[in-house]
Amino acid sequence: MMKSKFYIVKETMPKIPTLLLYLFIMQQLKGCDTVLDLGCGASSPIRFVKAKTFGIDADDRVIEKAKKKRTHDNLVVLDVKKIGTTFAAKSFDAVVALDFIEHLNKKDGYRLTNEMEKIARKKVLIFTPNGFMIQAGPSEFDRHLSGWTVEEFRNLDYKIYGMYGPKFLRGDYHGIRFGPIIFWSLISEFLQWSYIVYNPKKSAALLCVKNL
Fold first, then answer.
1. Ranges of each domain in the chain
2. Confidence category of residue 15, pLDDT binned at 50, 70, 90
3. Does the N-terminal peptide bond of residue 14 adopt cis geometry, omega within 30 degrees of 0?
4. In this structure, is the dihedral angle defined by the CA atoms of residues 13, 55, 115 and 34, taken in order, positive or negative?
5. Under DSSP, is residue 205 helix (H, G, I), strand (E, B) or coil?
6. How open is the CA angle 117-161-80, to the nearest 5 degrees?
7. pLDDT for 119-146, tens place per residue?
8. Strand 159-166 to 203-211 pairing
9. Is there a contact between 37 and 46 (Cβ–Cβ < 8 Å)?
10. Which one of 38, 116, 162, 184 is CB 3.0 to 4.6 Å from 200, fit for a cystine?
11. CATH class of the domain whose range is 5-211
């Protein structure tokens, strides 16, 4: 699925933080020609990756929305817990789970990372809040069941990048806690790329990368 940089800018403007985050994720996936996107939802950042993409989600409603937006080359309704018996070992260059692992309990989350590493040839990417973030949501698929830390992913040999700026600036759903929002958003973004990206313990979210 070939997407130009102009398309990415057009789709994310005026949300500069979103644009920079997506470009950072794309950079991490450079050199990966096939990507499996777990819990892809209706508007995954993977829609911008220049690769053959396969998205799965247990919610048939979001898969239908994703199909209308043509976010992936292939989209399937599937329980992510079944990927170990659905996909062969080393069948994708990269396997990603963005804003997903926190929707599983810890036991299932650790099992998921293990299965992702078996299916991927080159890389595994996981994006999640830094620690537990309460989230209920309108459906069972929206609830957060676990929180993950820098130490937990480092123990699994992942390289960790801090995302969404300093944790103290973010509240529910990673929204800016203070006003004026535009001012504090700029402060958050400046600190994000000047300091937080390489100091993930102080960040609001984590991007965890494992090269295989």
1. 5-211
2. low
3. yes
4. negative
5. strand
6. 35
7. 999 999 999 999 999 887 666 777 899 9
8. antiparallel
9. yes
10. 162
11. alpha beta
Do 135 and 173 contact (CB within 8 A), yes or no?
Answer: yes
8-state DSSP, 13: T
Residues with Cβ within 8 Å of 129's Cβ and at least 6 positions away in sequence, in order, are: 102, 144, 147, 148, 174, 204, 205, 206
Exposure class string for 165-180: b at 16+ Cβ within 10 A, else e: bbbebbeeebebeeee
For residues 171 and 134, what is the distance between their CA atoms, to the nearest angstrom?
10
Strand partners, 66: none
d(CA 23, CA 9): 10
- DSSP annotation of 126: E
Three-state secondary structure call for residue 176 = strand
The pLDDT > 70 percentage for the chain reads 91
Pairing outcome for strands 120-129 and 74-77: unpaired
CB-based contact 91:69 (threshold 8 Å): no
Which tokens sit at 97?
A: 């789970």
Residue-wise pLDDT tens digits, 66-116: 999 999 999 999 999 999 999 999 999 999 999 999 999 999 999 999 999
Residue count of the chain: 212
Q: In terms of pTM, does the model score above 0.70? A: yes
* CA 164, chain centre distance (Å): 12
Omega within 30 of 0 (cis) for the link into 17: no
